[in-house]
Amino acid sequence: MAAGSPQQSGQTAEETPGFLDALLHDFPAPLSPESPLPWKVPGPVLSLEEVEGELVELALGFLSSRSAPPALAACLAHEAVSQLLQSDLTEFRKLLEQEEEGGDGVEEKAPVMLLDAGGLARSLFGRLWQACSQWQQQMPAAARAPQRQWLVSAHAIRNARRRMEDRHVCLPAFNLLFGLEDSVDRAYFAVFDGHGGADAARYAAVHVHAAAARRPELATDPAEALRAAFRRTDEMFLRKARRERLQSGTTGVCTLIVGNTLHVAWLGDSQVLLVQQGQAVKLMEPHRPERQDEKDRIEALGGFVSHMDCWRVNGTLAVSRAIGDVFQKPYVSGEADTASRELTGSEDYLLLACDGFFDVVPHQEVAGLVRSHLAGPRGSGLHVAEELVAAARERGSHDNITAVVVFLRDPRDLLEPEPDTPQRS
Whole-model pTM above 0.85? Predict the structure, then answer.
């Protein structure tokens, strides 16, 4: 779910029945065929491979917009979506298309089942309403179980650009959302920076985490699961782009925190920065055309890198890897890089942001900006992303700006001097 507000995950025993009572008061019965849907349907049709991600987004977005506690929203979304996916979806079949699968000048035809998105959305609401009705009487154990508390601050602005093409995702209840029942805690956060339109960024914000959750490697090799999820999402979006004549693309960076291990995957120049004991720790190298390995890869494929106000692939894109960009494949690669790092408990926070932030704010200045905010009157940490976005804008960024700060320990502890730090007199 592309969440735009600060949040502290978790829920109290009082919040859960109160939310269910309020929702069922507003929706005392399932929707009739004539009733308007309480959410915007993502286009007229969905391919079969898109269904889970899109339905999860619909349900979670609706519940979050009504201020559902994050864990309850994740559980309800999973219940409604999984029930619908177990039904016979052929009743929603709208048409069977022969889709062009272009590549290297050769076009192959592959049959694609397209489903009625409106019918699926209406059926989803019915199952969501049914789950709320049942849970009002008897709450499942998974929805009652205590969850790890996450303090997350997220903020995004269109800035001086004509359109907002960034998207971000905060999923502290990743396991609950996808019904993962092992004993390992997982939380997912991501930023996607679109270009040429918002379609690719929106698509990645819906499907990367859904694809990762279903990868068989998730339990044994989470980094590889993320890499495969980026690849899968790129393939899916390219099919959609050919079908719907879309030309957009998106960079992206995501983190999956699995127990005490941080896993990062990225394409392009959106970045994640780790701050540990007040020091910036670089986790990744952005994919830009001027990188020698990227330049060599592009030229080996028959493309070129040229300088036109900045280094660009084939004279167009300023990033060398991205989801989408159908007319720039394979030069603009959809293959993500990954990194993993064990967390010791001394880490302060993660900052995920697009190039609209990092192009004007050096890594080494982030900790000072965050510390200044925490020492100020609104220093709880909930609004730190707003301060970081404002700082980037004040430094001259005209791009869309998105920042997501995930605290790995209590922000109040970050103002205390480290044990071996000498006191100033």
Answer: yes
Q: Which of 383, 333, 393 lies closest to 359, judged by CA?
A: 393
* Tens of pLDDT, residues 328-337: 999 999 999 9
DSSP state string for 86-153: TS-GGGGEEEEEEEEEEETTEEEEEEEEEEEHHHHHHHHHHHHHHHHHHHHHS--HHHHS-----EEE
Angle between helices 199-213 and 222-244 (to 10 degrees): 140
The secondary structure element, H or E, covering residue 194 is strand 186-195
Give the count of alpha carbons within 13 A of 281, CB side only. Answer: 17
Instruction: Tell me the pLDDT tens digit for each residue of 187-201.
Output: 999 999 999 999 999
Q: What tokens were used for 59? A: 């349900």
CA 11 to chain centre: 22
What value does the CA radius of gyration of the chain take, rounded to a whole number of Å? 22
List the beta bridge partners of residue 273: 282, 351
Tell me how far apart the terminal alpha carbons of the chain are, to the nearest angstrom. 48
Residue (of 224, 222, 250) closest to 236 by Cα position: 250
Of 152, 153, 157, residue with least CA distance to 393: 157
Q: What percent of the chain has pLDDT over 70?
A: 91
Q: If DSSP codes are grouped into helix, strand and coil, which group holds residue 49? A: helix
- 347 — phi, psi (to 5°)? -75, 140
CA dist 30 and 129 (Å) reads 6
Query: Which are the contacts of 141, defined by CB distance < 8 A and separation ≥ 6?
Result: none
Q: Rounded distance, CA 67 to CA 295, Å?
A: 47
Residue 285: name the closest of 307, 264, 315 by CA: 264
Q: What is the C-alpha to C-alpha distance for residues 187 and 303, in angstroms, rounded to an integer? A: 38
